[in-house]
Protein 1
Amino acid sequence: MHTTEPSLAGIVDAITEANLHGLLRNEKQSPDSGVLTGYSGNKVVGVLQRLARLFVSDATACYLEIGVFQGLTLNSVAYATPTLACFGIDNFAFFDPGKKNLSIVTQRIEALGNSNAHLINADFEDALDNLGAWIGDRKIAVYFVDGPHDYRSQLMCLEFALPYLHERAVIVIDDSNYEHVRQANADFLRTHPDWFLIAQAYTSSHPDNMSAEEGSSAKNGWWNGVNILVRNQKDLGTRIYPPTRRSRSAFEADHLVHPHRMASLVGDSLRLTNEIANKAPLAFARRLLRMVRKISSIRPRLAKFDSMNTNSRELPEFIISKIGQ
Ligand SMILES: C[S@@+](CC[C@H](N)C(=O)[O-])C[C@H]1O[C@@H](n2cnc3c(N)ncnc32)[C@H](O)[C@@H]1O
């Protein structure tokens, strides 16, 4: 089995090229072809393609992404690296109201002739728990994290993948504009000193909050920001971390949400209070009505207490592990 390790200089060149030139062009990926559309910037796609190409002659390597959506990144990388096995995990739980994304991805894999692209239709935690069943003995050389964006999921996407990562793996974390994503990356870097932040790119806001002009520049660029991590590259010298705020109050608020009986309505509650801030009485009334209906539908399943529900009634009173059994 032939293995190669891309040099740090090769990785830096791949990232620099992507920053200068974006997507690796081919007729099927032209923006007008309609074959590939999705939620990623051209520089993000371009960096994945170029990083994956560094590993094409390594038979032990593969590409893995969490968050396939309609297959833009998975197919773009697979098309650029026909000899590299490429895997994508998605449970199609988000951005898929018509339940069409699974068939869109499979159709696109076929349309592009990407026989090296493999879809893992599962929740990322279940998939990473038993990833060997899909990737065999391969190691993840390029790992793209673009699935659920809550703090815990972001951190666990990194932690749970550790046993499967290639010695010279590169991790690209999308949506690093978000503070909680940067915090998860910074926490991972602080607790894993063999990992280094090699590149970071940010845009002014989430593209959905941009003007049309800014949005098109983000689409051609780094979309909603990325952090790129490499392993065992001590030549990088001083360790750096993505910028984070010292205040942890938003993370500390998690403790109020999780044990609250209305936790499942936290999104609705935030939208409701936002209408107050926006001084929009009609929108407020509409949302309030929707919430009243929602509360009556979930009432039979509500936890017993207003807050501080522990869900521990059925847990054992005391348990201790026996030594040597
Ligand atoms: C932003 S989209 C990915 C965009 C994609 N990389 C592209 O090229 O357009 C995020 C995806 O993550 C998936 N996702 C969210 N939570 C997940 C979970 N717990 N397990 C697996 N996939 C998940 C969603 O279904 C969604 O398709």
Protein 2
Amino acid sequence: MQSRTILVSLVAAALALGFGTASAADGNAAAGKQKAAPCEACHGTDGNGIAPNYPALAGQYQDYLEQALHEYQAGDRGHSSPAISGRINAIMNGMAAPLTDQDIKDLAAYFSSLPSKLSDLHGKIQGGN
Ligand code: HEC
């Protein structure tokens, strides 16, 4: 009887701590939408970029977006040749700098939830199919 009471208490405590509310831990798209305003200037309100030099984020894998943002923040995602500009992307390093881990999860959840216009290269590579 007593162990049952302890078990119930443990479950209640776990719920109070937020276990089971996976969306908070994994990123909240609604919260991400609120945080996305500065990003939309370049990545577009639909997440597809206002010009080809701004990558499409809409429909991209959430973990990919999170990884990219952590790398920009760490100064470890930039030009592929360190001789040119190191591994720091001047724009995105600055944009990612103030983000918390939760901001990154929320932004990634939001952009990955948007309809994708991503496509593969079928028919676009000479000699390919
Ligand atoms: C001033 C324009 C600008 C703003 C504002 C901006 N970005 Fe970017 N973003 C870029 C550019 C340019 C790149 C491509 C950089 C590169 O070559 O690595 C990029 C790349 C990215 C990537 C990597 C995409 C990929 O497929 O490699 C992510 C993720 C990203 N931005 C998220 C964001 C988020 C989230 C915000 C808002 C907090 C934001 N960006 C604000 C210009 C911008």
